[in-house]
Design a protein that fits this description.
With about 160 residues, the chain is mostly helical. The chain has helices spanning about 10-20, 35-45, 45-65, 65-85, 110-125, 125-135, 140-155. α1 (about 10-20) packs antiparallel against α2, α1 runs parallel beside α5 and α2 (about 35-45) packs antiparallel against α3 (about 45-65).
């Protein structure tokens, strides 16, 4: 419920992404924050997950590279957050989760935190970006083939 959120919920999502990407117990070597970031955006506004998933799937189908899909999906969430923030009535810097008119306040913190998460995702994918430029990135076709066989075996 909104009443229990002291700060903007995306701030909690950002903290979860930081903990996922830089875990203390694993010597600050964690994941790439894609699933955690998409979960934070989906918790804030569920249609964003649909936008991210469609962008991810289309880009993976076209390029056959998961890294490209992850970066483009995260960027699509940021662009959608920016559009939602600019289109809403309330675009002020409201860090607290004060009740407002309408369903949810799309404020600038929403956009800023989405931008920080996208930057984290892109920075964690720099090694993959270098391999894409050098044309040495592993293509996803073989993995899809194996996943289809696993799915058939489970049925």
């Amino acid at each position: 419920p909104v009443e229990f959120c002291v700060l903007n919920p995306m701030l909690y999502g950002l903290l979860a992404c930081l903990g996922h990407t830089f875990p203390v117990f694993l010597k600050f070597k964690g994941g790439k924050s894609v699933s955690c970031g998409s979960g934070a955006a989906a918790a804030y506004y569920p249609p964003l997950l649909l936008i991210a998933a469609l962008t991810f799937l289309i880009s993976v189908i076209i390029t056959k590279m998961v890294s490209v899909g992850s970066i483009l999906g995260a960027s699509a969430v940021f662009i959608s957050a920016l559009i939602l923030s600019l289109a809403s009535k309330e675009t002020m810097l409201n860090l607290t989760n004060a009740p407002t008119e309408g369903f949810w306040p799309y404020n600038l913190w929403f956009v800023i935190i989405c931008f920080i998460i996208v930057v984290m995702i892109v920075l964690k994918h720099t090694s993959n970006i270098k391999r894409i430029i050098a044309n040495k990135l592993y293509i996803f076709v073989f993995i899809i083939f194996n996943m289809i066989w696993i799915f058939i075996l489970l049925i």
